[in-house]
Amino acid sequence: MSYQHLISPKTHYYRLSVPYQLESGTILTGVEIAYRTWGTLNLNGDNAILICHALTGSADADIWWEGLLGSNKALDNNKHFIICINVLGSCYGTTGATSINPETGIPYGGKFPEITIRDMVRLQAILLIRELRIKSLKLVIGGSLGGMQVLEWALLYPDMVRAIAPMATSGRHSPWCIGLSEAQRQAIYADPNWLGGNYTPENPPNRGLAVARMMAMSTYRSWESFQERFGRNYDQVAEQFTIANYLQYHGQKLVERFDANTYITLTRAMDTHDIAQGREYKAVLQSIKQPALIVAINSDILYPPTEQEEMANLIPRGELVSLKSIYGHDAFLIDTIELNQLVIDFLTVIPD
């Protein structure tokens, strides 16, 4: 299945002229990076803000983060040069499982290599430094998988990044998150069409991917949000509870816009997330020198506030703020009025 029709015509592409080596040592050739920009880079190359997207997101931040991006909003493209890059391994333009492998002439499919959050960030840096000529990032911001990238940006490029805003995320993936991701992957593997990742575009493992999404949606919300919205309401026509209708709807919507191998690739990358990588975890957090707006969501059961509290306590210039919401993990995408103001307030302390 092609996802080209889902990629904005405003998307830009940058193709690496040299091979790209992953942390694993695997070499990728002909790597392409898909990205969007808003606003204008100033002559000093230092008014840029980088947005990092979440698991099934894309570079189209003007759609999924409309509440924060635009004139007179936190991410004001009249003042700043805003960039959002589709991550390595995705299916929305940057090289991933659905891309053609230059070595074989066919899509990578299940043979796309294991990647890490650092692989994503280092590739983004190549684009920003070599192609876009950005010298300094005023802010790197993102939630969930995006927040993981934010933290790695702060550590890998400390002289380039002036401030960070990681949201609804952690410094290392917990066994809770790893377990939930593994259950979702097993649902995909159990689909008869999976075929070890070597399925055809005509017969993808849609049932497995839909079930994986249903599991994920149950962790993206909260007990209170499901109770308030659905209660024990029963759909007499469908002969099932309305919460079942809701989950099945979101499962179907994902299979129409996302690839199963991509889901496997990105969730595995998230599971490897650990900013310490064998070093002392607390010391690594203490080494982050940038001002950091750390956003916790009080109802987030996937990345609970205790994880953000730990980061804020250890990052020397960390500021913990709580987004109070019934919407759980996805509140950073839903309660954008309050979040927008939190980011505006934070940006006032970051020098231009």
Low-confidence stretches: none
Strand content: 5-15%
Helix content: 25-40%
Main sheet overview: 8 strands, mixed
Number of extended strands: 12
First-to-last CA distance: 44 Å
Name the overall outline. Answer: globular
Strand order of the largest sheet: 1-4-6-5-7-8-11-12
Q: What is the CA-atom radius of gyration, in angstroms? A: 20 Å
This entry's quaternary arrangement is single chain
Mean pLDDT: 97
Structural class assignment = alpha/beta
N to C succession of SSEs: EEEEEHEHEHEHHHEEHHHEHEHH
User: How many helical stretches?
Assistant: 12
Provide keyphrases for this structure.
alpha/beta; two-stranded antiparallel sheet; eight-stranded mixed beta sheet; globular; 12 strands; 36% helix; 352 residues
Structure description:
The chain contains 12 helices and 12 strands. With 352 residues, it is of the alpha/beta class. The protein has an 8-stranded mixed sheet, with helices on both faces. A two-stranded antiparallel sheet has the order 2-3. The chain has a two-stranded antiparallel ribbon with strand order 9-10. Helix 4 (175-189) packs antiparallel against helix 8. The longest helix has 15 residues, at 117-131. The radius of gyration is 20 Å and the shape is globular. The termini are far apart. 45% of the residues are buried.
